[in-house]
Amino acid sequence: MQLENGKILHSDNVFKAHSVKFIDAISDGIELLDQPEKLRKVLNELGAMHEQKRIPVTGFPVFGNAFFATIKEILGNQCSIELVNFFSLF
Ligand code: HEM
After folding, report:
1. Is there a single domain that holds both residue 21 and residue 3?
2. Among the atoms of ligand 1, which is closest to the Cα of residue 14?
3. 22 lines ligand 1 (CB under 6 A)
């Protein structure tokens, strides 16, 4: 995908660095599923950090849809209806 500034998205260093941070954050979140208070604190801090960076709220569904499309492609016919329903909540 080509960006407005002519860069190719998946070769962009900022995008690549964020992709690693994103996956780490998802992994940390999964680890904390049985500690909801701690998870809430971590997510609130992450949300505040994005707000400080002035990331527009409209970016999150775009990001979420791209993430789910990738998961669906990887899982193929193993993508369950429960998973589809889960992602449709957002
Ligand atoms: C659920 C979705 C997202 C997660 C889990 C996530 C996760 C993260 C994490 C873990 C960091 C590093 C925090 C730190 O260093 O303390 C970060 C930084 C950042 N995120 Fe996100 N992010 C998400 C969505 C987005 C979106 C949609 C954008 C913009 C379109 C964005 C832009 C940024 C920027 C600009 C930074 C700071 C630069 C950097 O550290 O690479 N993030 N994000």
Report:
1. yes
2. 41
3. yes
| pLDDT tens sequence across 14-46 | 889 999 999 999 999 999 999 999 999 999 999
pLDDT tens per residue across span 44-69 = 999 999 999 999 999 888 888 888 89
pTM for this model (two decimals): 0.82
Residues 21 and 11 in one domain: yes
CA of 35 to the centre of ligand 1 (A): 22
32 CA → ligand 1 middle, Å:
19
Say if residues 33 and 39 touch (Cβ distance below 8 Å). yes
The answer on 43 and 12 residing in a single domain is yes
Tally of domains within the chain: 2
Taking CA 59 as the corner, what is the angle to CA 33 and CA 26, rounded to the nearest 5 degrees? 20
For a ligand 1 pocket test, name from 12, 23, 46, 58 the mutation site with the most ligand atoms within 8 angstroms of its C-beta: 46
Same domain, 37 and 8: yes
